[in-house]
Design a protein that fits this description.
Two copies of one chain form a homodimer. Chain A is an alpha+beta fold. Chain A is about 40% helix and about 25% strand. Chain A has eight helices and ten strands. In chain A, strands 1, 2, 3, 4, 5 and 6 form a six-stranded antiparallel sheet that branches. The first copy, chain A, has a four-stranded antiparallel sheet with strand order 7-8-10-9. The first copy, chain A, starts with about 25 loop residues before the first helix and ends in a 5-residue tail after the last helix. The structure holds a DNA duplex.
Chain lengths: ~240, ~240
DNA sequence: CGTCTGGTTGATCTAGATCAACAGGAGTGG
DNA sequence: CCACTCCTGTTGATCTAGATCAACCAGACG
């Protein structure tokens, strides 16, 4: 593990205000600093594997990390994405259970590992940090539950459109000509794995959505040409 | 709300050792006692509705409670079941968000409501109780995530068999003639809603499973006639 | 009794999976 | 620079799990 902690300091970390460490005091932060191992990850690397024991948590500085679950038959599902500012692997650490899924780097990332021993110390010292983790867990249940409900009742079309709207809420913008635009953060096959479909189905769906005038696809860029119809078909409005 | 607290005391509650209040001191328990409103619920009653604000938590003494989610199109999904000893509604209370699903009584139940104000007090006084809630939340993420992954990749058959094995693990027994037996805790339509299928599909599936000699159905009673095949088709072994 | 609820069955339809081929980069290596 | 392969995505032909629509049945129950 390449440790380049010298170049990155928690105290000056630009995304610290989004993290679980946001309300630590300076001396407490120094504990994190000492227990921190930062390094670059390339696309395709796995941070930890399903079934592994946890020995700390990972704080994403930049990049994109996916949670992938593989069942006994080898079926793979992409359960969610985590971006800069998000802490991953906290659940196994706090529950002392093996990781229930793998954390896979989906785009070049810079990630800090924080040793478990330091966390244990801080959890005692800082109730606010514990509260942050609790709130993180509660939010994660909500997200997963909503996805689960949708997966039980929704069609591939509605799940796909919903996913696009999630991306849109996070990263949507208006381009030079005023079009509502999103950049899809992951490749088509990963999108398929996020909604429990085959890549071929996504391909065909993309074509019909384009023919029906809801969206326009240019590689990973998506123009929303009929927002009302998209929201309706995504099951977001009645 | 019929309050019959006199008949039930937390101090002597037989399922307290399973609950979040298990390691409260006597004076702390008295705070729960004072803030407690217990009553009987009939099948079909709703304890709280999706979208409602939370004002406390519900501790199930006896009976069965389902978490039901209904989307904007009116599609209903049954996200999970909670039995005696389980606390429901804690998530909304802790996150101060509206309930994301409804709690529906699925069989005659006796349930204690505990006022939020008391909980807030206790969370400050008893870090152990906070830890219990944290662990509860972490366990719930794990369960929901596993269900979500399965719903993305599995067939109706595998989800149905898996659900039966879950029931079997909780309540399975050997009957007089030594058959592996489970009692399904909910009706067919609810099973359908738990796996995202139509009741008709379950009906047909039941017949083929019986023909194939995996299971035998007698109303809500299920005899497991070929455990290996069931485990395999449920995706629980390779 | 009639009415309701929960469950079954049949006929048909369709969304989406599966199998198979192919095409356009992007690297890589000679 | 070309040839090669890998990777991602697309398209076509076909198949099937499961939905949908509709009728029906048995027990519970006021």
């Amino acid at each position: 593990m390449i440790d380049n902690k010298s170049s990155h300091q928690c105290a000056t970390c630009p995304i610290r205000h989004k993290t679980e460490w946001r309300d630590l005091s300076d001396p407490e932060l120094e504990i994190v600093e000492q227990a921190k191992h930062a390094r670059d990850y390339e696309t395709g690397e796995t941070i930890y594997h399903q079934g592994d024991a946890s020995d700390g948590v990972y704080c994403i500085q930049t990049g994109l990390v996916g949670a992938r679950y593989i069942d006994v038959d080898g079926n793979s599902a992409l359960l969610g994405l985590n971006e800069a500012g998000s802490t991953v692997g906290y659940r196994s650490f706090l529950s002392k259970q093996p990781h229930s899924n793998s954390a896979e780097v989906l785009s070049p990332s810079f990630i800090c590992f924080i040793e478990g021993a330091a966390l244990t110390k801080l959890l005692i010292a800082s109730p606010q940090m514990g509260e942050r983790f609790l709130q993180h867990a509660l939010a994660d249940i909500g997200k997963t539950e909503a996805l689960y409900a949708r997966s039980l009742t929704g069609s591939v079309k509605s799940k796909f459109l919903h996913l696009i709207m999630v991306f849109y809420k996070q990263h949507g913008y208006q381009d030079a000509s005023g079009n509502l635009t999103v950049q899809l953060p992951v490749k088509r096959t990963d999108i398929a794995e996020m909604i429990g479909a085959q890549p071929e189905s996504i391909s065909r769906l993309v074509r019909t959505l384009q023919n029906d005038g809801l969206l326009k696809f240019e590689g990973r860029k998506v123009l929303v040409t009929d927002m009302d119809a998209v929201l309706f078909d995504a099951g977001l409005v009645f």
